Amino acid sequence: MLDYAVAESEMAEYWYIRPGYEKAVQKHFENQQEPEVSLESLIREKDFNEAGKGSAEVKNVLKRLGVNPEILRRIAVAAYEAEINVAAHSLGGAMLSHIYPDRIHMIFMDNGPGIADIEQAMMPGFSTADEMVRELGFGAGLGLPNIKKNTDALHIVSESGDSTMLEFLVFFNKNGQ
Amino acid sequence: MKLSDIVKILDAEVLTPEVNLDKEVPCAFASDLISDILMCTKEPTLLLTGLTNQQVIRLADMIDIVGIVFVRGKKPPAEVVEMAKERNLPLICTKNTMYRSSGLLFNAGLRSCRI
Ligand SMILES: Nc1ncnc2c1ncn2[C@@H]1O[C@H](COP(=O)(O)OP(=O)(O)OP(=O)(O)O)[C@@H](O)[C@H]1O
Ligand SMILES: [Mg+2]
Prior knowledge:
Strand order of the largest sheet of chain A: 1-5-6-4-3-2
Strand content of chain B: 15-25%
Helix content of chain B: 25-40%
Bound molecules: adenosine-5'-triphosphate, magnesium ion
Mean pLDDT of chain A: 94
Number of strands of chain A: 6
Oligomer: heterodimer
Order of helices and strands of chain B: HEEHEHEHEHE
Radius of gyration of chain B: 12 Å
Low-confidence stretches of chain A: none
Helix content of chain A: 25-40%
Number of helices of chain A: 7
C-alpha cells in the first residue's frame, strides 16, 4: 500500500564519524565483540532529581578502570547530555553502556515521541524544550552538538511519533588504535 | 586566588562551612545554561550561576568544578546543599549580580576559563 510506504520513509537516520576513526568504527560494528562490562539504567520522563545518575555511574566505573581524565570528561559530557535529552524530551527510556578494553559504546533508547528532523535537531540553538525544562537550565539547543563534539562516532535513528535510538562510541586511544 | 579570597571579594555567604575553602581557583565561567557550562569547562573551574536545582550539582560529577557561586542572592534548597557536602563541593552565595560578581573577580585577577 502506498500510504504505508510513505509512513515508512518518515524514519530518519543520522551518522557522524570523526575523521580518522572510520576503520575503528567499522571494526566495532562488524566484530560484535563481547564487552568486558555492561551497565544499564532507566531514565524516567522529567525526573530531574535522578537524571544524570546513570552517567555518573558510568564515569565512576571508567575512572576505576584508569581511563585518561580528558577522555573521561568527553564521555561524561556526551552521556549526560544524552541522558538528559531522554528525560527532558521523551516519555522515558533506558541507557546501556558496553565497556571494552579500548572503547565505550553507549546506547540510549526511549519510548517516543521521536525526532522528525534530525539535521535540524543537530543545529546549535535548535530546541523544543518546554518552560519547565528551561527553568532548570536546559534548552540552549547545544546538547546534541555537544555529544557530536565529544564522541568519535554518533548514530541517531528516529521515527516521528515513535522512538529515538542514539548511540555513540568513544575510543580511549587516538584514532581507535 | 583561593576560594576564601573569593568569599571576601564578593562579600559572600558560605553555604558549606564544613568544606575547605583553602583551594586554589585557576579560572571561572558564568552561565545559566547547563549545555553551555558543559561545553566550556575543560579545566578546574569556578562556576557562577543563578541555577539552584540538583542538576547544577550533578554537573560537578561530569566536569571539574572547584566551587559554585550563586549570584543575586539565590539560595539552593537544603537537599542541594546536602548533595554538595557529600561531594566536598564548596557552595557560596552572593547578593551581587552575575555581571557585577564576574567583574569584581576579573578585576581581582581571576581569569576566564579557556573555551
Ligand atoms: N530523545 C529525544 N526525543 C525527542 N526529541 C529529542 C530527543 N533528543 C533531542 N530531541 C530534540 O532535539 C532538540 C535539540 O536537542 P539538544 O540536546 O541539542 O538541545 P536541548 O535539549 O533542547 O537543549 P540543551 O541540550 O542545550 O539543554 C530538542 O529540543 C528536541 O526537540
Ligand atoms: Mg539536550
